[in-house]
Amino acid sequence: MKKAIPITMLLLSLSAYVYFARIRPSREVDPTVRGTGSIEATEVLVAAKVPARIAKINVDEGDAVTAGQVLATLDCSDLEVRHAQAEAQLAQAQAGTAQAAAAERQAKGQLAPLQVQYDYANKERARVDSLFAAAAATQRTVDKAQNALRTIEEQLRAAELGVAVAQSSVGVARAQVALAQKSVDLAATQLTECTLTAPSAGVVMTKSREDGELVLPGATILELGQLDQVHTWIYVPNEEVGRVHLGQTVKLRADTYPDRVFTGTITRINDRAEFTPKSIQTKEDRTRLVFGVKVTVDNPDHALLPGMPVEAEVADSAAPPATASAAGATPSHGEAAP
Q1: Are 263 and 281 in contact (CB under 8 A)?
Q2: Are 57 and 211 in contact (CB under 8 A)?
């Protein structure tokens, strides 16, 4: 029993020495921040904007597409009829505007002679009134001049009202033309939505619909993934987040490429801490606060695919560079491991 005590003390002393002299110092001087994550790609949904039946989907899952490429067409026969009706209504409205403009010109043409006659009748009445005051004209002559002026005045007012009505009709006709033009433009725009094109280059990740299916506005037909540049999120513990910064280089390794190292760049660091994702095995790790760090990686050969797990190593630096920014960070593509 007495011999066992010195042996136990010796083992404890040896364990303490190994921990404090070997294990703990190596942890403190480790210049690398490590993390794991899964590859993610920017997803672009190609959806219908008009209710229609799918006429033809031109691509399949896994196909590479270019920006502007026609991916699918919809059967928009109803929209074609609506567009034709809108054009007919526009033509009718334009004809109505032409008729209203002609009526306005005619009303104005009748107004000018009446204005001349009114000016003459007004002068004639003034002349007769002067003669009557000098006893050189009879009352009958005065009444006749007054009646002539009143008649011309009524005709002039009627002509002015006709001009106002004609101008109002022209305004209404022009408004109808504008409304009909908007209907034509809307129908034309909807017709263009019957051809679905790729908003950007990528790879068809998911094909959600088939030819002949009826789709409603907003229904996703295809899902594209932009694989030329991918990203992953790693979670850095609270006590290590000060060792990472925007623009910092990150090395990533994927199990399927054991001899290859991919180089990425930190393009975002979340400004709020969160709990470690539950996929971490130990309870102690799950209760630790971490910061999400986004690593962007160029992927020109599409070697990295969405969902692929990767291990990341972030080389430590003494201090973040003053010009580091997410917008200026340009990741580099994978390179062969030494």
Answers
A1: no
A2: yes
Structural domain including 66 reads 44-76+194-215
> In terms of residues, how long is the chain?
338
177 and 146 in a common domain: yes
Q: How many domains does the chain have?
A: 3
Residues sharing a CB contact under 8 Å with residue 224, sequence separation 6 or more, in sequence order: 43, 44, 45, 46, 65, 198, 199, 200, 202, 203, 204, 205
The distance from CA 299 to its chain's CA centroid, rounded to whole angstroms, is 26
What pLDDT digit, counting tens, does each position of 181-235 carry? 999 999 898 899 999 999 988 899 999 999 999 999 999 999 999 999 999 999 9
Pair 168, 192: CB distance under 8 Å? no
Is 151 inside any structural domain? yes
Q: Verify that 151 and 207 share a domain, yes or no.
A: no
At 139, give phi and psi (nearest 5°). Answer: -65, -30
* Statement to judge: residues 71 and 198 lie in one domain: yes
**What is the rounded (10 degree) CA torsion for 205, 206, 210, 214?**
-120
Q: 5-61, pLDDT tens digit by residue? A: 566 666 666 666 655 555 555 545 556 888 899 999 999 999 999 899 999 999 999
The pTM of the whole model exceeds 0.85: no
Rounded CA-CA distance 155/107 in Å is 12
List, as one string, the DSSP characters of 18-64.
HIIIIIHHHHHH--EEEEEEE-EEEEEEEE-SS-EEEEEE---TT-E
Strand 40-47 to 335-336 pairing: unpaired
Give CA–CA dist 19/139, Å, rounded.
Answer: 137
Q: Residue 14: inside a domain, yes or no?
A: no
User: Helix-strand-coil percent breakdown of the chain, rounded to 5?
Assistant: 45, 30, 30
